[in-house]
Structures are given as structure tokens and as C-alpha cells.
Amino acid sequence: MRWIAVLLLFVPGIAYSNDWDSFSEPGAIAIMRHALAPGTGDPANFEIGDCATQRNLNERGREQARAIGAALQERGINFDAVLSSQWCRTLETAELLNVGLVSEAPSLNSFFGDYSTRDSQTIQTRNLIAETSGRLMLVTHQVNIFALTGQTTRSGEVLIIRSTADDVEVLGSIMIQP
């Protein structure tokens, strides 16, 4: 019986991390790594606002973002604000979730190519969380999530977190395979 559960971990479209109840915790918000966008980093000619110069979602990534959004909607999980990095793959992920109007938040931009902004962006993101009322969905990058939570994420993984006095607490995670 255990081997069946292990096999299900690798079936596309099956949620294999499902801490949905974490959303009912007081102060719970979602922070998500963009959906599947094959590769690492961005090309040398990267420009914000020009998707042709960036690493982007592939069709599996688009399907993954839609599936995550549908799963959130099926469970009645709503967001008062959806904030995204300005990278095309995060904006597209946020739009495809279809869980609210998407706004750009520069503090969620990747610092993978320049770690000198890591600390200031992480502080700005903590402030953004503290200053925004209601339930938030943040769509960003692995490096930003790790800096904020100390936890790595897979493409499309959603961490459910809440702000504490001087940090954030990870309450759970949701992962739907691409």
C-alpha cells in the first residue's frame, strides 16, 4: 500500500503536498514559486518587460499554474491581493492562477543574478506583507522564497506562511505536479 502512495507522487496533476488546512490558520498567506519554466536563471540580455529576453513558462508550466488556481478556487480559497515579481514567468503564473487582479511588486523580483540586493529586498517583502491587509498571494522566485522562509521550493510550489514579530513561519505547502 505504501508503494502506491509513493507512485502517486510522480503522477502529473496529482497534488503530493496538500496542507490545504494551513490556509485556515490566522494570518495565513501564500507565497508561490513561479510555475515550471525550464532552465536556470535568465539570459545575459535579460530585460524586465521584454519576455523574449527571459526564461518563460512552457506549456506544462501554464497547465500547472491553471491547475493550482483551479484547486484554490475549488476549495474556496480567496485572495484580497495578488502580488508578483515583474519577471514574465511570475506575472504569467499569477495571471493563469486566476485568483485575483495581479499587481507588480519589485521586492519580489529575482536577485539570482545579483545577491547584493537580497537583504534589502527581503526586508521590503516583509514590510509589504505587514502593510497589506487581507489574504495575500505572492508569486516570486526560489531565491526570494528561501531568503524569506529558509525553505527551498519546487517550480509551482505554494508555501503557506504567516508573519511573526520578526520573521515568517511556514505553516504548510501545496504542490501540484506540472
Automatic annotation (TrEMBL):
CDD domains: HP. SUPFAM superfamilies: Phosphoglycerate mutase-like (SSF53254). It holds the Pfam family His_Phos_1. Gene3D superfamilies: Phosphoglycerate mutase-like. This is Histidine phosphatase family protein.
